[in-house]
Amino acid sequence: xxxxxxxxxxxxxxxxxxxxxxxxxxxxxxxxxxxxxxxxxxxxxxxxxxxxxxxxxxxxxxxxxxxxxxxxxxxxxxxxxxxxxxxxxxxxxxxxxxxxxxxxxxxxxxxxxxxxxxxxxxxxxxxxxxxxxxxxxxxxxxxxxxxxxxxxxxxxxxxxxxxxxxxxxxxxxxxxxxxxxxxxxxxxxxxxxxxxxxxxxxxxxxxxxxxxxxxxxxxxxxxxxxxxxxxxxxxxxxxxxxxxxxxxxxxxxxxxxxxxxxxxxxxxxxxxxxxxxxxxxxxxxxxxxxxxxxxxxxxxxxxxxxxxxxxxxxxxxxxxxxxxxxxxxxxxxxxxxxxxxxxxxxxxxxxxxxxxxxxxxxxxxxxxxx
Length: 370
Prior knowledge:
With 370 residues, the chain is an alpha+beta fold. The protein contains 13 helices and 15 strands.
């Protein structure tokens, strides 16, 4: 009897364990990847790879057990996948995911997010804007903003539908974060209220908490608040660098601050079409313009070379502060660049998110009141 009971217990345990098993089978298009290593990473923490495997015959496999589904990144040389680790057999290729409930729904969502029509239209207007001047350039910029707004609305609606279908799982958490992440009008208080009614898996989702913290920081440095100083290194015309901070120039002056990166096309357009002209026009009337270089890519040498080339190509003559501590955008809760901000003589932030003709108008108003 005891032996039968023990066998029954083992059978139940084995059955329970089997229900939590997952297998990820992947297929790759290139034989050049054979022999390379792939890593399975939990995308929501920084604890290192969960597992690794070798590509063999254009295929790879991961397997294990999972208690609660989680978002995985499968990465290696020339390979990057995203999927949900949950019990069952999961299939992945470079352009498809299938096999389990969350992965099937996630794949449908990626197809719903095909905005190639808007992307093509946006590229056309971007080309026009790069060569146009005056009213024609302004019209191109308005068209680009309108297309981007349509894309954001589509994305937010799709993310909302996905969240409503998956309120209690990790896919819903990802959808919720996307939904609130692209909502430029949401406040920290509104998000806090939404999270009160959210399931724990959504409320505790790390990117959601990061979005909440970003909103708090953005509101702490919003219009009407005193600016927060930023430390970095000043670029000098002789190619050398000098430690400094934003307050070196901003204190006691009307200051226009441009968060930018060399690879950012809209940033370059604002510099070329607006900021350089505004600097030349108003620098003798009390205006200080500061370029705040953020988010440069690559190692230190590449970052410096890319910045130098941008300064030379565009002919930037105003001071540039490099965010060497990588804290500027976090401090101001910046999610995208360019972020152009105007600071008053008393240190009060007068405007944020300035673009196009609004930049000069804000500068004129500020200088007239000093």
